[in-house]
TrEMBL record:
The lineage of its organism: Eukaryota, Metazoa, Ecdysozoa, Arthropoda, Hexapoda. It is a multi-pass membrane protein. It comes from Papilio xuthus (Asian swallowtail butterfly). It holds the Pfam family ASC. It is found in: Membrane. This is Sodium channel protein Nach-like.
Length: 584
């Protein structure tokens, strides 16, 4: 085989082999920095896995450490695996149910824990509508030519006449619209014709006013009952400024006026409160702190062809922000003393719910939905505004008593127009009902447009109780010298029932702290999880591996170290090697 020398086998010596390996590593690290990055990543991953194992074995989680207990047999470990999995599953189901409940009903309505004073809310708007729509002294309805426009004009306000039967074959011209407005305004009773005296405690002492009633307190307003007069109505009757020119057709003194009050913000928190601030309010309850009105109705002006057998007043009690196109009214008979006791109910919503979509919280704040005709958003204003917009879009006209953005807008006057209005009304009611049930479903989807007329998040509603008593003699509160007959005078008093009231409050069912506490309680109950567990996890799985990796990166790790002590380097082989170069 030939002669061989010992030096020929020098490369087989362990030192030579080790030196060769070290030389290869050094060459690799010097040629490519990627090798050092891989070594860093390998070390970091190794420390993360080691830290997770230490967290599970030595941490505070219940039962998990028994899975890694070295003294337990395989069967014992499997038993604890099953126990931990069942506990995690039950905990997950409970957390899911809690989240589902929060998502489906994120808020609750509760009664206020503390009562509110009545001076924190406006006095209700009181609308007085005489059941005398056209005065005989202005026009005799029975003598009007049935083919004339005046007969159709009368049918619009007279409940005994059908405007659909009297409707002309063609729509009225803009000139006819002006004549119609003049006919209704001049033919209806004036404020001074029906209101002889009034009493309002916050602005004067025990004094009944006469001339000032109609100049300062009662303003004309169009309703479904014709031309009426409203007390404590907002500027432009809570309609937007675009309707000012229409208001001037029946109220020449109407003006725009800025308000220091809003549904969301309420009155300014100043003391003493200003009693003349609009909308008006009272400081106490009781008849003496309410509104008293003496009403007169001239029976000689009554026309059976227009009003039938009805003689009296319709009275509407509502919030100053709501529209007056409603049919829910109180009947005020003549020769009676009518007392109306009002109880307010406020609905408030926490600002914390602003983060939820309106279709989830089921209400709108004032800055979230604007209406075309009304300044304030309420559910009743929304529905009526929606109906008016749909009628204008589908029928291309508006009713005579509806607010108009432009004076020259077409008035619905033909039979086709009135039929179209009823069809649109039915479709609007159907659409609103469908949208309500659609939004009431728990699996409802997010909406890009708000189809439902949800209530206002902050609103005021008024409920009333009515009491009647006989007037044994005709009251002579008014100093004016006018002649009247028995049954032509009546009195009304509207006041708050109590000095305080309980409102309703909409707030989050689970706020951030409660929700975190509920989830933390479930985790602690089933797994023993706590804030300390989070700290342990962060320490063992993040901080400690990062610290070890950073120490490796900052260490004096040079190629000479690899040549001299490659196997004992703590960052390459943390557990070292024995003399036979086996990993310990």
């Amino acid at each position: 085989m030939g002669n061989y020398y010992l030096k020929d086998y020098e490369y087989l010596r362990p030192k030579v082999i080790d030196r060769g390996k070290a030389g290869n590593i050094v060459a690799s690290l010097e040629r490519n920095k990627v090798g050092n990055c891989k070594l860093f990543a390998r070390l970091w991953l190794r420390e993360v896995l080691k830290g997770l194992k230490q967290f599970l074995y030595e941490g505070s989680l219940h039962g998990v450490k028994y899975i890694f207990e070295p003294t337990f047999s395989f069967k014992e470990r499997m038993i604890w695996v099953v126990i931990v999995v069942i506990s995690i599953a039950i905990c997950a189901v409970n957390i899911f149910q809690l989240f589902s409940k929060w998502h489906s009903t994120p808020f609750v309505n509760v009664i206020d824990s503390l009562p509110s004073p009545i001076w924190a809310v406006p006095f209700p708007m009181v609308v007085v509508c005489p059941q005398l729509h056209l005065q005989r002294s202005y026009v005799n309805v029975s003598a009007i030519d049935k083919l004339s426009l005046n007969h159709f004009f009368a049918s619009l306000v007279c409940p005994q006449m059908s405007h659909t039967k009297q409707a002309p074959s063609q729509r009225m011209t803009p000139e006819d619209n002006i004549l119609m407005q003049k006919f209704i305004v001049e033919g209806s009773p004036k404020c001074t014709d029906i209101i002889k005296s009034c009493y309002w405690r916050p602005t004067q002492e025990l004094e009944w006013l006469e001339k000032e009633c109609c100049e300062k307190m009662f303003k004309p307003i169009f309703t479904d009952y014709g031309l009426c007069f409203a007390f404590n109505s907002l500027p432009l009757n809570a309609m937007n400024n675009d309707t000012q020119y229409w208001h001037k057709t029946f109220d020449k003194n109407v003006t725009q006026q800025a308000l220091n009050w809003s549904l969301d913000g309420g009155y300014p928190k100043v003391f003493p409160p200003d009693p003349t601030m609009i909308p008006l309010r009272v400081m106490a309850s009781g008849e003496i702190n309410g509104l008293g009105v003496e009403l007169y109705l001239n029976s000689s002006e009554h026309q059976f062809e227009c009003d039938g057998n009805n003689l009296g007043y319709n009275v509407l009690i509502s919030s100053p922000t709501d529209h007056v196109y409603v049919s829910t009214v109180l009947r005020l008979p003549m020769n009676k003393m009518t007392t109306i006791e009002v109880s307010p109910t406020t609905y408030k919503t926490d600002n914390a719910l602003r983060g939820l979509a309106p279709y989830i919280r089921q209400c709108f704040f004032q800055d979230e939905k604007k209406l075309n005709y009304y300044e304030f958003y309420t559910d009743s204003n929304c529905k009526h505004d929606f109906w008016m917009r749909e009628v204008k879009k589908k029928c291309h006209c508006v009713l005579y008593n509806w607010p108009r953005l432009y004076i020259w807008e077409t008035i619905c006057s033909t039979k086709l127009d009135f039929r179209c209005i009823e069809e649109v009304r039915a479709k609007v009611e159907e659409q609103l009902t469908y949208a309500y049930y659609e939004d009431s479903q728990e699996d409802r989807k997010a909406q890009t447009e708000f189809a439902s007329c949800h209530p206002a998040c902050n609103d005021i509603l008024y409920s009333s109780q009515v009491f009647y008593s006989d007037l044994m003699s005709v009251p002579r509160i008014s100093k004016a010298n006018f002649q009247f007959k028995e049954g032509e005078v009546t009195r009304i008093n509207v006041h708050f029932y109590d000095d305080i009231f309980l409102g309703q409050h909409r707030h989050t069912q689970y706020d951030d702290y409660y929700f975190a506490g509920a989830i933390g309680g479930l985790l602690s109950l089933f797994l023993g999880f706590s804030i300390i567990s989070v700290a342990e996890l962060v320490y063992f799985a993040l901080l400690k591996p990062v610290h070890t990796a950073c120490d490796f990166n900052k260490s004096d790790f040079t190629p000479e170290d690899l040549h001299s002590n490659i196997y004992s380097h703590p960052y390459i082989y943390p557990e070292g090697r024995d003399l036979q170069h086996n990993i310990l």
